[in-house]
Amino acid sequence: MNVSLVIVVGLALYVFLYWVYGRFLQEKVVRVSEEPTPAVRLYDGVDFVPANKYVLFGHHFASIAGAAPIVGPAIALAWGWVPALLWVWLGNIFIGAVHDYLSLMSSVRYDGHSVQWVAGRVIKRRTGYIFAWFIFFVLILVVAAFGAVLGKIFVKTPAVPSAYLFKIVAGLILGVLLYRLKLDFRLSTIIGIIMLVAAIVLGEKFPIKASYNTWMVVFFFYIIIAASLPVQVLLQPRDYLNAWLLVGGLVLGGVAV
């Protein structure tokens, strides 16, 4: 099958069902209200912080469209190209997107609580406990799998970890521009994209070489530190830059095809 045809059909499905099925979920299932979100009502400067809608979109888009949508179809190829294609087309539409959207909106509806808390509140308390243990073990597996993949990439391509390090610095600077200095959003975005490109270039010039086990230790402490910082300091601006990197990669990949 021609690759261009696969991309065109996939985009057509996504756009059509976004407006049809997505609107159905929004109006009939979620029933979005105009009440202030937890970021506004429960503002604490750490986890609950109002954000620009584009930064917020980039934050969630980069978090969702990370390793899973890439590694998943790659593994599915072991069973042939048809299962992988069906997963990318239909799995995203009816499983992945629905799961992520409804999980997010249920959290918004219940003051930013996690999905296991919501399950315990809506169904039964015992359900929440079971769900919490399930998520705990699943997250261990997910973090281990992603860490293994990243560790191998970092060892094989030393330019990647150095570029990522520079991108973290760029994210920190962008966070200061957006939240501390209150710089114009468009200007901040332009500066952020320039820093992102510079991070990639500097990564090629200053590669970092380390062993696989060393990177595992680095990942362990990085996860703890990143999760402990206020969301507007690193996670939001970093993921906003990641979103631009993802979109740029998709555009360049489409042009190459």
How would you describe this structure to a colleague?
The chain has helices at residues 3-30, 38-41, 53-64, 67-76, 81-109, 115-122, 125-156, 159-180, 185-205, 212-228, 235-256. It is mostly helical. Helix 7 crosses helix 10 and helix 8 (159-180) crosses helix 11. The longest helix has 32 residues, at 125-156. It is globular.
Q: What fraction of the residues are assigned to beta strands by DSSP?
A: under 5%
**How many strands?**
0
Uncertain residue ranges: none
Order of secondary-structure elements: HHHHHHHHHHH
Cα radius of gyration in angstroms: 20 Å
Largest sheet features: none
Q: What structural class results from the helix and strand content?
A: mainly alpha
Q: Mean pLDDT, rounded to whole units?
A: 89
Through-space gap between termini: 13 Å
Overall spatial form: globular
Fraction of helical residues? over 70%
Count of alpha/pi helices = 11
Describe the structure concisely.
The chain has helices at 3-30, 38-41, 53-64, 67-76, 81-109, 115-122, 125-156, 159-180, 185-205, 212-228, 235-256.
